[in-house]
Amino acid sequence: MSQILVAPDSFGDTLTATEAASAIAEGWGRTRPGDTVILSPQSDGGPGFVDVLATQLTSARRHAVRVRGPLDEEVDAEWLADGTTAYVECAQACGLPLLGQSPSVDTAWRAHSTGVGQLIAAALDTGATRIVVGLGGSSCTDGGAGLVEGLGGLERAQHRLATTELVAASDVEHPLLGSSGAAAVFGPQKGADRDTVTRLEARLTEWAAVLEAGTGRFVRDFAGAGAAGGIGAALLALGARRASGARIVAEHTGLDAAVERADLVITGEGKFDDQTLHGKVAGAVAARATTSGIPVLVLAGQVALARAEYERAGIARAESITRFAGSVQRAMDDAAGQLAGLAAHIARDWPPRQSPDSWAQM
């Protein structure tokens, strides 16, 4: 009998981290019902941040609120209150799925973060003195201009947050502007073509000047200012400090201690690629496990790394849901079922007959 730690991130728009963890556990249990399976879904501040924390902070309370979505239509969003600390997830107010359509040049230009400001305002209205804003998965590239508007404008926002501890939870280190900034790096993922990226860069440059003149903080070059389409810049200008979203969640979920007790760690995400090994949740979980000599299995929607590449990072095995399902469409239409099936299939090879290092060859 083995102890299996299941600690995935979300799988894009198809599965939340909590849903993914449950699917993996269900599938693994079909094949190896005698194993102890510990669920510890993770997040770096992007989609699922509030949901993951809500499963761990048993005294916390969810608050539902209607806010302006990225294209102005009102959307339902939630934030989490744990005493006087509030946890806000920007994807709840301006995430890509809230566009209601595929990202396009039009949505890349029009999408805004006003609803995020409204979520922060709602937390302030209930007496929050510390607000942690999870960044990631946004559909906008407005530099947080909408967020500031949702707080009543720059002067009003500064006044309202003057005595509040504000935390920008993100593992993105990109600045606001330039070739590694919000528009250039993330704009194309949100539907922007080359001309629109140029226009977005110009708009962000103008907005940076407004933020800096109004707050006295020269944020355009700050690490993390480009997170979530530049929402990071607005938060930093308003006095936020940046903290690792993945570390915040890991601490609340007791990840380090859970890894030490595990015989195998299973993590995963939508796409397992080079970015995974450079700051994404699944990579961080894997790094923590390999440091302790615990074998790591990665289950992902797609695996874009060669075996030699992930083995160099200490990962024993990586498997694709798409390959298991036989098609991208089936993998997306039945994401939970296919993930559970893949976990059940892989569990037949555990424990490896020789050593964890030989597992990848099976």
TrEMBL record:
InterPro entries: Glyc_kinase_flavodox-like_fold, Glycerate_kinase, Glycerate_kinase_RE-like, Glycerate_kinase_sf. The keyword Ligase does not apply. It holds the Pfam family Gly_kinase. Keywords: Kinase, Transferase. The keyword Secreted does not apply. GO terms for molecular function: glycerate 2-kinase activity; glycerate kinase activity. GO terms for biological process: organic acid phosphorylation. Its EC number is 2.7.1.165. NCBIfam families: glycerate kinase. Belongs to the glycerate kinase type-1 family. This is Glycerate 2-kinase. The gene is garK.
